[in-house]
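2.7 Reproducibility. Because tokenized structures are sensitive to small changes in the input, we list the exact sequence used for Sulfatase-like hydrolase/transferase, including any N-terminal residues retained from the expression construct. No trimming or masking was applied before prediction.
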Amino acid sequence: MDIPFRWLAFWLLLPNLTVMLMWGILGIPMQASWMLSGMLALTISHLPWRAARAIGAAGIVVFVTVLYVCQLFSIPPLNFSLIRQFLLDVRPLQSPVYALAGVVVLANILAAMYFAPRVPRFTGKSQFLYAAVAIGLFINLDGAFAFDARKSHRTLPDDEIPVHSAAWQVGLSPDIKHPHNVLLIVVESLGAPAMPEGKALFAADWDRPEWRERYDVSHGKTEYFGSTTNGTLRELCTIWAHYSSFDFAKADCLPGRFRDAGYETTAMHSFTSEMFERNTWYPKIGFEHMIFADELLRAGARSCPGVFPGACDADIPPMIVQKLARAKKPQFVYWLTLNTHLPIVENGALGTDHCSIGTAQWRSDYPMLCRLFQLHHVLADKISRLAMSPDLPPTDILIVGDHKPPLFDRTLNGRFDQGHVPWIYLKARTDAQS
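Resulting structure tokens (single pass, no recycling of outputs):
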């Protein structure tokens, strides 16, 4: 048998090592990557120039890694301006997990440049056949290993699946006769816990008895697909779509409806305005004002570190209270949080250097979960102070998750509802306002 083992090792497996290592952690389906990298490898490995083969082998590793990162963060692979913005704004080396991944990728590139060009070129048709069979085999293996990830990394469905967003379920809409302010908060990585410890922590944070003194409180779940921007469009426009391909000329979104009804519409986010091109498409769905990290920091918000550094979420609620209290017309405010974007680093400025919630055993067994719940607890405290502030005029508050926490550990996925995120609705009772 003339099986090209060295070619399989250094041209097929080595370039896809990143994908293979993630099989046991968060195996995002990457069958297209195996197909494309395999075809590239068959072509480049038979070039007559060793230098070209070395550069090509390194290029395949980079290509596969970029595809994986784009898939992980829902970045269109050919959107080079967005990839550039991602590299400028995101700080992956803040996370030990990402720092280790960077070392692995660099070592992978160097190994590919050294070993792959030294692999003999095929001498017979049977070797091409074996290579093609191996590519097909690994495409199927990737599909098998990544099967569980499809539940947590849910890509957008077709148009036939109805969108029952939280905003749709509670009937969020402008009330011209009795206009309340409306605050819609989409919380980064707010999942619906499925285990007793998580459920107890969630209930303590998001079902507070004092809220009922001032609001009619209801809870529920909504189905989610995709990433944070998909969650934004789900809640604001009641659609399953990616902003890069959505026809905003046909949009019928909440900010536009509230604006047309006489409300002032504002979007707030603690990250940069350029990331995911929010500064471009937010106005298209009806936002008159946009407040991002730079303006929040100038207004007095602290800077919070992490993989996604920006303004501290905990400092935003007082600004919202102040804005609503001073407003001369009804307000629609959309606030997208940031600091609970995973992975969450251990950092004193974030308050995650020492996790103090839950039982000691739970904290020891699930440190990343503990940091996530702790930041959600801090956020819930700040939102509760906002909701109960005597300076807050009548305001309906809808809080909803964008997607479940994308944890890099298969064993933790079952700790959250795999297909739904929770929502909490505080409907202001005008007669109960202070």
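The CA atoms of residues 64 and 342 lie 22 Å apart.
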